[in-house]
Amino acid sequence: MSVPLIYTAAGIFLFLLGTYGLVAYAHLLRKILAANIMGSGVFMAFIAVAGRTPGAPDPVPHAMVLTGIVVTVAFTSVALALAVRIARTSSRVHLSGRDEEQ
Amino acid sequence: MDAVLLTHPWSVWTIIVPLAAAVLAFLVPRRAPLAGIITALSVALFVAATAYRIFLAGPHTQMLGGWQAPLGITLRADGPALIMLLTSGLVGLTVSLYATGYFTAADRQQRYFWPLWLLLWAACNALFLSGDLFNLYVTLELVTLSSIALAALNGSPAALDGAMRYLLAGLLGSLSYLLGVALIYGAYGTVDLTLLGQTVRADGLSRAALALMTAGLLLKTALFPLHFWLPPAHASAPPPVSALLSGLVVKAPLLILFRLWFEVFPDTATAGMAHLLGILGCGAIIWGSLMALRQQRLKLLVAYSTVAQIGYFFLLFPLARGEAAATAWVGVFLLVLAHGCSKASMFLVCGTITRLAGHDRLAGLAGAGGTLGARLLVFALAAVTLVGMPPSSGFIAKWLLINAAIVAGQWWYLATIALGTLLASGYVLRVLSLAFTESQSPPLPVAPRILRWPPLALSVVAVLLGLAAFHPAVLTLAGAPVSGIILLEMVP
Q1: Residue B450 belongs to some domain of the structure
Q2: pLDDT in tens, A26-63
Q3: A34-44: per-residue pLDDT in tens?
Q4: Residue B89 in domain
Q5: Which residues of A touch B (CB under 8 A)?
Q6: Boundaries of domain holding B416
Q7: Which value, in Å, is the radius of gyration of the alpha carbons in chain A?
Q8: Do B73 and B440 contact (CB within 8 A), yes or no?
Q9: CATH class of segment(s) A3-96
């Protein structure tokens, strides 16, 4: 098993772990953290892709990961701001249940 | 004169102008509505110029800053992109006009509405013109981020909740899409749509990447059964925002799906996968319409109608295989245009009604003749396109889809389209019947002109587009991945 393959597999594992966390946990902070773990998994897969050819690593996936990190940071900050606002206005740290919506 | 019209990259300006205006609107909030209106008018002009150029000189690409791919960004103006730009131009212009009257200067929401909306507009136009998988990802994220902020604009607990749901669903969807992009880059070393279309092999890895990207985008398009986040987010946002989310934003991931399935992976996708999307589309049409029928609030009814209409777009995947491909392709793109105009108009009318009556509970609007009656008439006019009555653009679109289903011999899609139309007339008539019930409600004030005319104009345009559908239909096929004749007569 080659090194890039191990990293890709680990990246996919992190992605799945994060997906589970995002779906399974109710606490908003846990959901946001889980989404960040998913993101790290995807970035790891990209970095593994950069090293798939012998010699110098491919710079394009690195540029993509940098852009991806910027996007994830923006998303995380908006999510945190929303979570804080939800906690302040309705003193909840989770989304409202189906029955509460009606 | 013609030389400039036919060689200048007009489409690029549809990104630059809203982006610059967004910054201006943020820095000088007092002048934001003016900046918004000027942007809206100029974007409409640039879209018209792009249409003229594509009509006479064909689709074209533009390297930003002269940088070649993979480092540079390639923008492609082709037929499908143009139909999306037309939708964005029409919906954007109308909503901008309406918003100048809806948000007042004293309103805190106005301060944030204009920068966010102009940023959303720039991101949407950039997405429609993007020519590579990664740029599509970045622009899709910009679209989602500004949409989330807009959905949370009024700060009510319901809106915050809806925005949070939207954000989490959006994150899950985009990361799944991005993992697919990583797999594709690892296998083929490029993310350019055209290059990938020539090199992609129909193997297991391509199929896995396609499945990942499709799943992510389905979540973002809110296809049944992944639609759970859409009704709360769309119904609790301010009306101009709902109009943008339903009329424009759901079409962004949809265009990426079309590009993936028909340009990048035409041979990788199996008939079974296409039919799965078609069946989910049918599920969306029926489930969304049934849910719309039993809503007690006007805005939720319109939001569930969006869930249903999204289903029609997914009929393209099974129908665009074989000889009916061009017919289904044109039908679905006309439906995108028709739905964008009619749905935006409906949400704007909802906004005016809510502003006048102080609520949008259907039971409380009974006996809404008089002042509200005229609003309901505009709603009815928009519904003509939504339901698909002749001569509206919705009628032409559904006619083409039905034709494609008959030519392809896939009768069950025909039955679903018919059933969906029947259910749609059901929930629309539920709203219209309000005008004919008698009650002793006190007369309501008349809405200001700016809250009355833009939705009316948009629904009239949506109806008239049906009479002038020839040019958009031909333009849709410019540079499209499918070709053939548009079948107008039913020949099984």
Answers
A1: yes
A2: 999 999 999 999 999 999 999 998 888 788 888 889 99
A3: 999 999 999 99
A4: no
A5: 8, 11-12, 15, 18-19, 22, 28, 31, 35, 38-39, 41-42, 45-46, 48-49, 52, 58, 60-61, 63-64, 67-68, 71, 74-75, 78-79, 82-83, 85-86, 89-90, 95-96, 101
A6: 278-492
A7: 17
A8: no
A9: mainly alpha
Q: Which residues pair with B192 in a beta bridge?
A: B132
| Average confidence (pLDDT) over B98-113 | 86
Q: What is the pLDDT of residue B283?
A: 96
Determine the 3-state secondary structure of B200 from DSSP. Answer: coil
In chain A, what residues touch B148 (CB-CB under 8 Å)? 78, 82
CB contact under 8 A, B186 and A8: yes
Q: What percent of chain A has pLDDT over 90?
A: 69
Residue B427 lies in a domain: yes
Nearest to A49 among B172, B174, B182 (CB): B182
Measured in angstroms, the CA of A47 and the nearest CA of chain B are apart by 9
Quote the number of domains for chain B.
1
Q: Which of B145, B161, B189 lies at the smallest CB-CB distance from A75?
A: B145
Q: Which residue type is seen at B102? A: Y
Scored b (16 or more CB within 10 A) or e, B434-453 reads bbeeeeeeeebeebeeebbe
B329 located within any domain: yes
* Alpha-carbon span B383 to B429, nearest angstrom: 9
pTM of the model: 0.94
pLDDT, one tens digit per residue, over B17-30 is: 999 999 999 999 88
The chain B residue lying nearest A69, using CA atoms, is B138
Residue B177, token pair as written in the block: 């899409």
